[in-house]
Amino acid sequence: MLKRFLAILFLILPILATAQEDWIRTGTGLGVEKVRIAVPDFKASSSDAANVELLRTFNETLFNDLTYAGIFDVVSKSFYPLQQPSNPQEMRFDSWSSPPPNAAMVAFGNLGKQGEFLIVQGWLFDVKNVASPQVLGKQYREAASVENARLIAHRFANEIIFRLGGGIPGIAESKIVFISSRSGNKEVWMMDYDGAGQKQLTSLRSISLSPRLSPDGTRVAFTTFTRSISELAMYSLELGRMVTFPRFGATTVSPAWSPDGQTLAFSSAMRGDPEIFLSGANGASPKRLTAYKGSDVSPVFNPKTGTEIAFVSGRTGLPQIYIMHIDGTNLQRVTDTGYAVSPSWSPNGQFLAFAWRRNYGPGAPGGQDIYIMDIASRKWVQLTHSGGINDYPSWSPDGRHIVFESTRSGSTQIWSMLADGSQQRQLTTAGRNQQPNWSFR
Amino acid sequence: MNRYTNRYPAILLAVVLVVAGCAKKQPPPPQAPPPPAPAPTASISANPSTVEKGQQTQLTWRTENATDVSIEGLGPVDANGSRMVTPEQSTSYRLLARGPGGQQDATARVTVTQPAPPPVVEQPVTQTDEQWFAQNIKPVYFDYDSAAIRSDQQSVVQANAQALAQRPNFRVLIEGHCDERGSTEYNLTLGDERARAVRDALVAAGVNGSRITTTSFGKEKPSCTESNEACWQQNRRGQLVLTGK
After folding, report:
1. Are B220 and A267 within 8 A, CB to CB?
2. pTM value?
3. Contacting residues of B for A186, CB less than 8 Å apart
4. Domain B127-244: which CATH class?
5. ipTM for the predicted complex
6. Contacts of B113 (CB under 8 A, 6+ apart)
7. Which CATH architecture has domain B41-113?
8. Fewest Cβ atoms nearer than 10 Å: which of A81, A355, B26, B184?
9. B189 vs A314: CB contact, 8 Å cut-off?
10. Phi, psi of A310 (to 5 degrees)
11. Roughly how many angstroms between the first and final C-alpha of chain B, as a whole number?
């Protein structure tokens, strides 16, 4: 009996292993060796008292940006040599390239307030190439502030990620919009990709939901209850206020932007049953795409081509995920069972992330988790296993990260993770926070 | 040549001579044709030519030289006359006058406009109205992930319809709600389906659909927050709200 079981196991294992490497390439380095990088704290270059706080913010931000980039194996600080460089002359190569740090790359430098300004010098050295080690040498100068210390750290991190990460721009300056109830009402908020700088955008004192940043980052489309009806609304980040948007007089839900920013897709009951509509970015000329009994909701465009839309439909009973062409033709069903909602399409056009409750019904085992699916092969991977309810995944612009909402901490909060499900971390704590959406850049 | 042929021309000549002789007979002198009868004339008018539905207009007509006068839709009429008519919709009244001299027709067109609907006078909703509403109009409850009216809810729908019939001037909003489980966006659409299902059931039970509007709050406005089936069932509902009269 045991022999037979082992025989079957040995047959299956290779298939499982190769299956993982073959089809699930989310760019997070599965099966690829991550670059081993050390990031010693930058040192003060002047004797200004303000440097203490500026340095702390800078060092923390840079270290986190590189740790969460998804392409590095960041050397633990406990392995660093005692003598750490603040400029190229101070670099002692073999103390970094040999064990314990065993680093391939080292990012180092100095920072100091000089007059009104904050000056940062940063280098990236390939410590195995003593003859010609410099990969990057940058200098930054901004008005001295904690905000700018954070900003410069993000910029330097992005440079390193771009250079070592195969030419895909880093996400250290990207933003996430979300809904927070902490002011007493559900309003639209925005934060940096790492959870810093959380700020309230709208003050409508209604119930606002489903925010989506425009591709050019200037506007947020969302829905809000106006005279007891859920309507589309638009907030301008450039103007810092709401801008007018047509009302359809019927339950309208879940806006999504086409990658060229010219078209909105959304769900509306303006013609009866909730259907998927397209309109101009100003809400003009709504055109219906679906015409089946059963709610159609939560559309999302293929960001690479702009010619397909994934959406949720209850036409067969429980909600399932479908894909169709933007003219409404070529309808394909993507999920086959359970309760599937909240699709998000990866920037490279290959994957859908979504929330799935594969065993559905009162008392059924298992929770609702985030899954990703390779659209071409329909093969999927479960990314969260925490228990609790996980929903509303949104891909990062580098295709390596996913932000989502989860109840696992006891209240609905926003979490992010790498697209292979690792490094899950909580980004919000105040009030209840839901429905995050990552910027296009 | 035989003997018959020889005789043929002679017979032919005789016939020609007889016929020629007839032609030469003198016809009787022609009588002067009688003078042609004068052609009939006809004219008709309606005053006023535009009326609101239900109002009268006066048709007035004149004919000459006609022995047989009729108006389409009214039948035979006197040669001259007038009559009050109350057309249901825009009508062309065609007068047909026939006589020995021929026939003539004329038409008067009457345009009928539909009356404007009576203006909706907003009455303030009183506390008595609200109390009556709360006592007589009840929410309709739904099963998990369903927008179908349950058999045990049919009586609630009927009771609501009968109550609404007693207050024909009440205007109602039906709010669709869902329990806390399930996703935010899908629940907004499920709630909308629930609200419309209740409206359709009320209309089928005789309530005028123009009195009813629908919306959905999804799971955003729960009436209770416990995580148990009793509370979840409370939230899976179509809730009727008095919006005006």
Report:
1. no
2. 0.79
3. 220
4. alpha beta
5. 0.89
6. B50, B51, B52, B53
7. Sandwich (2.60)
8. B26
9. yes
10. -100, 145
11. 118
